[in-house]
Amino acid sequence: MSEPWTIERIRDALDDPELTKRFLTEINRAPAHELLQTFARWERTAKDITAAIERGRELAAFDERGEEPPGEWSDATDRVLAEAGRIRAARGAA
């Protein structure tokens, strides 16, 4: 069984100073009736980040051994970069 998610564990899993700052600000400013919803949203984010890091480590291990990773893979680099550009543009306009 894995450790339960706590504010400290979420903070550590975010592993990015700006994201961590945003999380702590939101969790500290959430009204009591929104606290669990705010925590749950950030818990999902932390779980997604943790899973992505683990998957990256698995893929790196295949690469280090010179092996192809199992399953089908598609290159989503262009789509991800385009979406990141749209997000940056939207933040600049806000």
Low-confidence spans: none
| Content of β-strand | under 5%
In round numbers, the mean pLDDT is 88
Helix content: over 70%
The sequence of SSEs as H and E is HHHH
Count of helical regions: 4
Terminal residue distance: 42 Å
Quick overview of this protein structure:
With 94 residues, the chain is mainly α. The protein contains four helices and no strands.
Would you mind describing this structure in some detail?
This protein has 94 residues and is mainly α. The protein contains 4 helices and no strands. It has helices at 7-14, 17-29, 35-64, 77-93. α1 runs antiparallel to α2 (17-29) and α1 crosses α3 (35-64). The longest helix is centred in the middle third of the chain and has 30 residues, at 35-64.
Ordered list of secondary-structure elements with their pairings:
Elements: H1 7-14, H2 17-29, H3 35-64, H4 77-93
Keywords:
single chain; 94 residues; 72% helix; extended
